[in-house]
Amino acid sequence: ARQRFNASMPALNQKVSEAVNPWRYLSMQDVVVTSNGKEKLLRYNLKKLIQVGGILTIPLRGTVCTMNFEAIRSILTTIVMAVSISAATVWIFQDDKENLRQVNEQDIENLATDMRRVVPFMLALYLSLCMSRWWALRTTGLGEVFDACSDICLLTGVYFPENRHRAMRKKMRDYSLASITLLIRAARDDSWCGDLEKQGTLSHLEVQALQLAAPFQRCMMIYAWMMRLVHEAADLDNMPAPNVNTFQVLVSRARDGIQTIHTYIRTQLPFAYVHVIALLVHMNSILVFVKVGIVCAVSIARGDTVRVCSEFVYLLVVPVVYE
């Protein structure tokens, strides 16, 4: 399994960000191309990211501004709404500029300040929960499966080293690779497994048996086959029972890891909680562009250009961070 993985790495790394990124002097990422042609961020240079800073690295892959157009849409929406409110305010007071200069914008600023005290706390709690779920998927989910596959192949080579066990060792390796492939496809809601037969990883009968089960059950079935194979070989070689128990523990760990992944992927956060977060964020955005629009209209009437510029910067930063 390690030799196959090492052999595939040059093909995966054939396209890196420095070759296609116009910001080559800022390049700090290694990008790989998957089998379906999609680019994935493999790793990044943390030291260089800190040295260059967050502003100059905005055009790089994987940032909130380049993953999708939601950040750009949020910026444009807030700018348009703030300008509209500011223009409407100026139009309403077009015949009474003196009253516009005397408008007290402190009340709406206090309201926006109170909202900013609530939103960061709720949003930070939500982000912390999301990151903890992501890390749990990596450690208690994928980590358990990967470790179990490596340990099973290792122990198979240790307990069954003879030449007559070569076919078994190869089969255990193929089963390990097949289980990881099926796990990834199950997480992506991809039920296709026919190519495993073409690659020689699984036989035709094995593929037919897998197609009778649900996607997440297929990778679990692989470990049942692995345990059955070990049990038959142990009976033929009169292997002590404690050695077989080691395989049972590893197979159970792998199954538990798959179940953990299935639970995290299929179990969403409570809708009411996520809705409250979305409601607070959008209410804050509305207060921001209303407040900026009114304050800018009053500042224009007073001739306070510095205040207008500061409000415009505030408009660009705060809604984008929260959205």
Explain this structure.
This protein has 323 residues and is mainly alpha-helical. Helix content is 73%, strand content 3%. Strands 1-2 form a two-stranded antiparallel ribbon. α4 packs across α12 (271-302) and α6 (106-159) packs across α12. The longest helix is centred in the middle third of the chain and has 54 residues, at 106-159. The protein starts with a helix and ends with a helix.
Strand order of the largest sheet: 1-2
Overall mean pLDDT: 82
Oligomeric composition of the shown chains: single chain
Shape: elongated
Into which percent range does the helicity of residues fall?
over 70%
Radius of gyration: 29 Å
Number of helices: 13
How many E-type strands? 2
Structural class: mainly alpha
Write a compact overview of the structure shown.
This protein has 323 residues and is mainly alpha-helical. The chain has helices at residues 2-12, 17-20, 46-52, 70-92, 97-101, 106-159, 166-187, 195-198, 204-210, 215-237, 241-266, 271-302, 305-322, and strands at residues 29-33, 39-44. It starts with a helix and ends with a helix.
List the helices and strands and how they pair.
Elements lengths: L1 H11 L4 H4 L8 E5 L5 E6 L1 H7 L17 H23 L4 H5 L4 H54 L6 H22 L7 H4 L5 H7 L4 H23 L3 H26 L4 H32 L2 H18 L1
Helix pairs in contact: 4-12, 4-13, 6-7, 6-11, 6-12, 7-10, 10-11, 12-13
Keywords:
13 helices, 73% helix, mainly alpha, two-stranded antiparallel ribbon, 323 residues, 2 strands
